[in-house]
Amino acid sequence: MIDDLYSARILTLAANLPHAGRLAAPEGTGERVARLCGSRATVDVVLDADGRVADFAQDVKACALGQAAAGVVGEVVLGATTDDLRSARDAMLSMLKSGGDGPEGRFDGLRVLRQVADYPARHASTMVALEATLDAVNQALAARAGLAGAA
After folding, report:
1. Taking the CB of residue 81, how many other CB atoms lie within 10 A of it?
2. Structure pTM?
3. Planar angle of CA 138, 39, 133, nearest 5 degrees
């Protein structure tokens, strides 16, 4: 059963983390920690004029499942909107907690983690990168709104 959880695809994703590191001048930074296991993701973003992710970096210290999710996110996040990220997060939670189909569109690669649904203790670590990315984008948008309000 554990072999199904840690498939070759998941281990490959975990070993190849796109956009690893931190940005020098992010507009937004998000951090999430899975309290049960200590998996942590710190994400920096810069947005384009339309609020889409234009630059992205992630520092992820997580189990193979958290690293694999971060690998998928890193592969497809450039160009994503807040709505894209929120939809992916909601679909991912539905997949893990209530048998949903999982994310569609650019984030459909997260479906490779469907079998994590059977391991509730692993749900939070699987979500840290996606949640941190959404937090970073929301922070960047809030900072822009604050600057626009101050002008």
Report:
1. 15
2. 0.91
3. 15
